[in-house]
Design brief:
Strand order of the largest sheet: 1-2-4-3
Distance between the termini: 41 Å
Helix content: 40-55%
Shape: globular
Structural class: alpha+beta
Oligomer: single chain
CATH superfamily of the largest domain: NADH Oxidase
Largest sheet: 4 strands, antiparallel
Number of strands: 4
Number of helices: 9
Order of helices and strands: HHHEHHEHEHEHH
Length: about 250
């Protein structure tokens, strides 16, 4: 049996308990990494596996509207870092003290410290103007890119690579520095690198910025804000237990 056929058979098999455990471990231990990056280089085969996982995300109409721009040039990184600092200072004016000072004290990116930066973009023109499933909800293409980013994030965690999403940036600056075509939209600017450790909890939760909501606070049944529908009694009890392994 050749390797290709063997892989197809493996993909159709049920997940073992160990495989399920590994999958949930990746989800619950995934972190938005901003610090603790080490100087250890990410090997090319690891980067390739992570990107391939991202590329196998679901996409509306099988449009695969993403592109991935790998960055390690220090000059490029410094330009992006300057945009971050400008945007962080600007956004700090949206909150009052003492939250403003607390916000400004947070380490919210690892642009220069991480060995690899990665910009994930959305190209709505791929495969022409008509994409199955996008005519009623145009944003479905953007959602597809977010699915690719989540795949990438979980694959990175599985490989022991930290990833941080830097959202405090100017898209105009990103488009200029990375020479993106006018119609291409930058969706995520990511920092990748090995880290000393993965935190037990998200940084902003640990810092007391916001709490993690219980699962029961975000699940409704049949209609908005219906939390006591009798048709869903059993799962309601399970949700009250807040099955959270993070």
């Amino acid at each position: 049996m050749n390797k290709k056929k063997k892989n197809i058979l493996e993909l159709t098999e049920e997940f073992t308990d160990e495989e399920k455990k590994a999958f949930y471990k990746a989800i619950y231990s995934r972190r938005d990494v901003r610090s603790h990056f080490t100087s250890r280089i990410i090997k090319d085969d690891v980067i390739a596996r992570i990107l391939n996982a991202a590329h196998h995300a679901p996409s509306v109409g099988f449009s695969q509207p993403w592109n991935f721009i790998l960055i390690k040039n220090i000059t490029t990184k410094k330009k992006i870092k300057d945009s971050f600092e400008e945007e962080k200072n600007r956004s700090s004016k949206l909150v009052e003290e003492p939250k403003r000072s607390k916000y400004l004290s947070f380490k919210l990116e690892g642009i220069l410290e991480s060995p690899v930066n990665l910009c994930v973009t959305y190209d709505p023109s791929k495969f022409g103007p008509f994409v199955i499933g996008r005519s009623s909800i145009p944003e479905a293409g953007l959602y597809s890119v977010c699915c690719a980013i989540q795949n990438l994030w979980l694959a990175a965690r599985t490989e022991g690579v930290g990833l941080g999403w830097v959202s405090i940036l100017s898209n105009d600056i990103l488009k200029e520095v990375l020479e993106l075509p006018e119609h291409v939209v930058p969706i995520a600017y990511l920092c990748l690198g090995y880290v000393d450790e993965f935190a037990q909890k998200p940084d902003l939760e640990t810092a007391g910025w916001l709490p993690r909501l219980d699962l029961k606070e975000v699940v409704y049944f049949e209609k908005w804000q219906d939390t006591k529908n009798v048709e869903w009694n059993q799962i309601q009890e399970m949700i009250k237990e807040n099955l959270d392994y993070a």
